[in-house]
Amino acid sequence: MHLLKTVLCVIGAVALLAGESLASEAHLAIPDLKAGTFGIFGVQITAYNLLLYGSAVICGTLGISLYLRSQIASLPAHDSMLKIADIIYQTCCTYLIQQGKFLIMLFVLIAAAMAYYFMGLQGESLNTTGLVLLFSVVGMIGSYAVAWFGIRVNTYANARTAFAALRGEPWDVVSIPLRAGMSIGLFLISLELVMMVAILLFVDRAIVGYCFLGFAIGESLGASALRIAGGIFTKIPLCQ
Questions:
Q1: pLDDT tens, the chain, 240 aa long
Q2: CA angle at residue 164 from 83 to 162, to 5 degrees?
Q3: What are the φ/ψ torsions at residue 146 (nearest 5 degrees)?
Q4: Which of 61, 68, 65, 60 shows the shortest CA–CA distance to 157?
Q5: Can you tell me the distance from the alpha carbon of 127 to that of 193, in angstroms, rounded to the nearest whole number?
Q6: DSSP 3-state of 1
Q7: CA 63, 64, 67, 69 torsion-angle sign
Q8: How many Cβ atoms from other residues are within 10 Å of residue 111's Cβ?
Q9: What is the DSSP letter of 43?
Q10: CA nearest to 137, candidates 200, 195, 207
Q11: End-to-end Cα separation, the chain, in angstroms
Q12: For the chain, what are the domain ranges?
């Protein structure tokens, strides 16, 4: 009898896990963020306001990223090094433009598949499908912006790091790439978080999961196209 109960418990657990495995971001149950308050540091605040104020903090970290970029750009470098860095940057921009054209063509196919899935298979409305596709585009633009920002900061940092090494300043050789990495990392995280918080705050709760899914598809599509189709090329600035 004990063995039978154990077997039934195992079967029930497997069935429960199997049911949960069918869930995804599209099935997120988002509560009303304005309903109810909770205390934080002795102040009552709604989840909506907490996210709204938190987005201001995220914008602050984005500002730190841009400040680090300006710091690196203001550092001295030899004129010949700056010219080489500018040539590399212009070449990378040409690459980004070509990849952007490829990304648009690729997105047309992905958008058609997404529209068929949401409208044909899931039975969602045209408005919902349009919002999902919109946030897919937003995700791609975010990924594209991070790629451009990373190339720009890297080309700034490489010339300054090489010049610091030429002058025999070991601390700058370490600190300049470190600040460049911090700038790119903060830009990436802050930009993506701001977009996700905007979805949580301003999109209908019933379709927040779908919009998250569309955003993730667009962001991943942009990142994969920019890396797979030219991953070595985008790392040229890092190798100088």
A1: 443 443 334 334 434 434 444 555 566 677 777 776 777 777 778 878 888 888 888 899 999 999 999 999 999 998 988 998 899 889 888 888 888 888 888 889 889 988 888 888 888 888 888 999 999 999 899 888 888 898 899 889 989 998 999 888 888 889 998 999 899 889 988 988 899 888 888 888 888 888 888 888 888 888 776 665 444 444 444 444
A2: 45
A3: -65, -40
A4: 68
A5: 24
A6: coil
A7: negative
A8: 18
A9: E
A10: 195
A11: 71
A12: 37-239
| pLDDT score at 20 | 45
What is d(CA 177, CA 175) in angstroms, rounded to the nearest whole number?
Answer: 6
Residue with tokens 């999109």: 203
Distance CA 151, CA 95 (A): 11
Q: How many Å apart are CA 128 and CA 115, to the nearest integer?
A: 10
Q: What letter represents residue 126's amino acid? A: L
Tell me how far apart the 2 most distant CA atoms of the chain are, in Å. Answer: 84
pLDDT at 169: 84
CB atoms within 10 A of CB 188: 18
Let me know: does 144 contact 103? Beta carbons within 8 Å. yes
**Beta strands per DSSP E along the chain:** 38-40, 43-45
Please give the distance of CA 55 from its chain centroid, rounded to a whole number.
Answer: 15
d(CA 115, CA 210): 12
3-state helix, strand, coil in the chain (%, to 5): 85, 0, 15
- The reported pLDDT for the residue numbered 17 is 39
